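Lab notebook, design round three. We kept the backbone fixed and only want residue identities now. Task for the bench partner: fill in a sequence for the structure below.
Input structure tokens:
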């Protein structure tokens, strides 16, 4: 059974995700990404002809293009992700982890370790097609489920060749927490795990912190969701964190990312930990804001881990300008990956 894969958007740049997979005469669209910043092209949706769309998670570069699709096009996502759809958009359930058939094509899903309710997808065609969506193997809070083998791996390579372990990122951020800071974060993603981490760090450092209503509501919502959507052992800490009384004017703020400018926070300095839009890059270059990454995507060693686990014959790095370098690196003999994995490398 032949399969045709066309990355409509997301190959060669950190661009909106839109991948067409055609198999058994059916055409599925994996993700319907919107622009991450003004001026980013949305041409992928022009003249689109597909049978259904599957959404991996609720970040704008994966879901923001839904409004450009015909309202009658069948859309599949998890219940958590559905909360971020345009009002009134009809949708059908994808399992948070499990199996289903969409237009006759077997689809397996699992938790991707990146965001609340965010999944990877595996299509049971032609030896398997795996699409990671955005994925991370280092989350303190979100589990990553092992996918079934796949001949083709479409991998989140948002970080390109970057390979710094999360523990080092956290250490660097911790060093910056003793002066007034605002940390803007996506509420369904790193906000939740950063809240847990900040609670520990600030107690240790003896500094005050607070979280805005959006982050608080997201943590409260997390406790109402099935336990299988989060790693074990955090519920008591989340409850403690939510019940604690907090300073109105704390040293540190964890806030929903609303594209704030330095002028919005005259008493604090912005510390970004995620993707920097061109505008933010300019602000960083001008010394107006700080940035230190908190890993929420696959770093290079973990892309190798994925290729090995999937036993993939072909890997396509997505969402990066470093396609060639990453591809070459994933093809090289993987002594590191072998010692990490203890399993056979696949060419
Ligand atoms: Zn994402």
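Proposed sequence:
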């Amino acid at each position: 059974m032949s399969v045709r894969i066309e990355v409509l958007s997301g190959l060669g740049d950190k661009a909106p995700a839109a991948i067409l997979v055609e198999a058994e005469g059916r055409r599925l669209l994996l993700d319907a990404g919107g622009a991450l910043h003004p001026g980013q092209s949305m041409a992928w949706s022009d003249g689109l002809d597909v049978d259904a769309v599957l959404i991996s998670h609720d970040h704008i570069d994966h879901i923001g293009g839904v409004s450009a699709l015909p309202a009658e096009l069948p859309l599949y996502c998890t219940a958590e992700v559905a909360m971020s759809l345009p009002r009134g958009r009809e949708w059908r359930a994808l399992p948070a982890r499990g199996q289903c058939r969409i237009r006759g094509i077997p689809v397996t899903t699992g938790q991707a370790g990146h965001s609340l309710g965010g999944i990877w997808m595996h299509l049971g065609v032609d030896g398997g097609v795996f699409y990671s969506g955005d994925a991370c193997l280092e989350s303190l809070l979100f589990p990553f489920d092992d996918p079934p083998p796949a001949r083709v791996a479409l991998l989140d390579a948002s970080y390109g060749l970057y390979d710094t372990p999360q523990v080092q990122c956290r250490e660097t951020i911790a060093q910056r927490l003793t002066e007034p800071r605002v940390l803007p974060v996506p509420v369904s993603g790193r906000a939740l795990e950063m809240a847990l981490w900040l609670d520990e760090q600030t107690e240790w450092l003896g500094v005050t912190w607070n979280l805005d209503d959006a982050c608080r509501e997201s943590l409260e919502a997390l406790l109402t969701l099935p336990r299988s959507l989060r790693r074990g052992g955090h519920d008591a800490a989340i409850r403690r964190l939510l019940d604690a009384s907090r300073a109105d004017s704390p040293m540190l703020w964890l806030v929903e990312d609303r594209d704030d400018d330095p002028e919005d926070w005259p008493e604090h300095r912005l510390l970004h930990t995620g993707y920097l839009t061109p505008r933010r890059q300019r602000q960083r270059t001008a010394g107006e804001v700080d940035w230190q990454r908190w890993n929420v995507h696959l770093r290079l060693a973990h892309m190798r881990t994925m290729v090995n686990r999937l036993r993939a014959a072909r890997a396509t790095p997505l969402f990066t300008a470093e396609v060639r370098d990453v591809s070459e690196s994933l093809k090289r003999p993987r002594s590191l990956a072998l010692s990490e994995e203890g399993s056979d490398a696949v060419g």
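Keep this in mind before ordering anything: The two ends are 22 Å apart (CA to CA).
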